[in-house]
Amino acid sequence: MHVVLGTGPAGLALVDELLARGRQVRVVNRSGKAVLPAAAELVRADVTDRTALAAAVEGAEVVYNCTHVPYAQQPEVLPRIQDALIEVIGRTGARLVTIETLNLYGPTGGVPMTERTAFAATSRKGRVRARIAERYLASDLPVALGMAADFFGPRTMIASLGATVFPPALRGEPVVAFGDIDLPHSYTYIPDLARGLATLGEREEALGKLWHLPVAPALTTRQVHELIGEILARPVHAHVVAEPIPWGPFDEEFMAEYAELFYWHTEPFVMDDSLYTSTFGQHATPIREALAETVRWFTA
């Protein structure tokens, strides 16, 4: 039994990957509602409720934490989720695989981020993430941390390469881009994230460590737009949001929280996955192929 906590884009992509690997899959979210393959079991539970969480993960060999928490709630809710996971998973003997984000490193001045990069977050949310990662790595829990860059791919909407890029590009309208679009920027394709998490859940040598999951070599955002234009056979033009101000689905509340992370778009934002690829032999999907599949999903 492999249990996936959360039904956002990452959780749903992971469900697909685990089923493709022949796993028995249980999926947990707060609403008890989700569009899932028939082979997956859906359970309603709040993961901060230890009793409900214990029932949801009963019999699990591996538990994957793909829960999503809005930025404004992260400093208060993420530690509560961790408290529950450490207590409950610690009693079951299951492995835990959890997604972490690059904001725990803080600005690097453009130096590519590796697993050896210091946790030097300058943002409130980044400092919370750093404390969470440090606590997991110092615990006795059999846990592996999977790191990803900016998400894109099927089902991924609220992202810098999501609903403000692909739908307008399909309509021939300007797409939205943040900051300096001529800086290299790593983007993680959601199916690559799912494959990476599933592999961490299978491999003993993954435990007790943080891993940068497969990511294609960084291009500039302008180059990414050019590739989308080649796929669509028409140019893609960008409306650049140079500062963290509300725009489209990125409303005032979102941008107020995102402002402290806007350095992702004002300095090179490059994630190095060489440790993962050399250890597990898996590489990211070529970015043109990943973008083409994402265009097909948004078209459908």
UniProtKB/TrEMBL annotation:
Residues folding into a coiled coil are none
Superkingdom in the source lineage: Bacteria
Q: Kindly give the Pfam families that the UniProt entry links to this protein.
A: Epimerase
Residues forming the NAD-dependent epimerase/dehydratase domain are 6-204
Q: Which Gene3D superfamilies match?
A: NAD(P)-binding Rossmann-like Domain
Could you tell me what this protein is called?
NAD-dependent epimerase/dehydratase domain-containing protein
